[in-house]
Amino acid sequence: MEEDDVAEAAQEYLDGGYSAFDGIMEGLVDxxxxxxxxxxxxxxxxxxxxxxxxxxxxxLDILRPHLPEVSNDDKVTGVIGVVEGDTHDIGKNxxxxxxxxxxxxxxxxxxxxxxxxxxxTAKEENADFxxxxxxxxxxxxxxxxxxxxxxxxxxxxxxxxxIGGGPISQKYADKIGADGYSQxxxxxxxxxxxxxxxx
Amino acid sequence: MGEMKEFQCTYDNSAGISGExxxxxxLTFPDAYLHRDTMAVLSKALKEYDNAAxxxxxxxxxxxxxxxxxxxxxxxxxxxPRAKEYICTAPEELLxxxxxDFSAGRIHEVLMACxxxxxxxxxxxxxxxxxxxxxxxxxxxxxxxxxxxxxxxxMKEVFRKLGGEIFKFMEEAKRxxxxxxxxxxxxxxxxxxxxxxxxxxxxxxxxxxxxxxxxLADDRTMILLCxxxxxALLGTEKASFREHKLSRPMAYGEGCIEMTxxxxxxxxxxxxxxxxxxxxxxLKEVVLV
Lengths: 199, 289
Fold this sequence. Notes:
By secondary structure, chain A is an alpha/beta fold. Chain A has helices at about 5-15, 20-40, 45-65, 90-100, 115-125, 140-150, 170-175, 185-195, and strands spanning about 75-80, 105-110, 130-135, 160-165, 180. Chain A has two domains: about 5-65; about 70-195, 3-Layer(aba) Sandwich (Rossmann fold), CATH 3.40.50. Chain B has one domain: TIM Barrel. In chain B, strand 2 and strand 3 form a beta hairpin. Chain B starts with 18 loop residues before the first helix and ends with a strand.
């Protein structure tokens, strides 16, 4: 369904007196999870997932104001971004979408993010994990720097670090002391849940 | 449509400018990325560092987009120029961007650096970006992907416009002495677009564009394709491979230089994979149907 149609359907759903929470979980999130599954099965590609996520967010914009007030303090928070020097953000955007769909509160720092910004934001937002990506070998060293900065800030024990991107591997994650590596956005959700002991 | 293969970019090849390459060159950054003489010095240093058969220009994928109004962060000695912020929020705006002026700005310096290197007896590979890569500097990719699905006619126009500018850059590169003109558009690869959309892009743009680019190949100029593009053409049955015997086993780049004049388009391997050896002494020409 296209995003305009989703917004219309969400409004009709609300007007019908149904629960916004159920609409989100059983409608929008379920739909996005199906898109994720199709992506994993290589039926859907990046472009399809992005279009689905636009539709999901359009529906969320309608339904979310009708949810009971829930503080973000109750949610597991992650900070995500493409490390400094790199502007390739397609993979990062997918990971963010999938993690948000899975219920994480994601703070997106965007692309070409100064390395200190990851640490500052993790501290400010009391984040549980940091996700970093890059598609370039020349910038992957920045991930190690961030891990070092988290240690210096005394945050390393409470903040899990996940990394991904074209040249990144489990071997590289082990080498720099990251907590985990995922090859794609669907795996990133599984990894985050595993690292944070979420069922 | 036949089976479309994915070419996985490898990362054990030349990754471009890094602190290791620039050490000892006595250059200041990002200034060195902006001027013909320092570009030439950097390009030669990179060639020597990679032990390559050729010099490469430019060092980033932002030159074309900058010449069309894109905003660039020039970077430092560790990482090169990259996109700073987008100047368009709707694909319609892309049609209003100015034509490239090849006589001014960084793109002119790139061409002049090419001329300088050629004058010093170097083989020069000019790295030219395809439309998705250029667009990545100008507009958030999500608007491009959405428009491809919802406004295909508009995107055809956008590709036509960008294709015209990219072709002119290739023409200029040839005029300024580039031996090998490399065309790549990894941002529009199979892993991102999926097979249906890749087929659409090949039909709407890539094939006709490359038929035109092919006319630039002659006894001193060859067109190189990123293997992602090659596989898209093969998978849509718009091209086939024709094998050419080399004088001996050699690196891919050397093979391209040896076959210039005999082969119009090559594209079996990434030109940045400088260590890749053609052990069977065969270079595969990409023959467009």
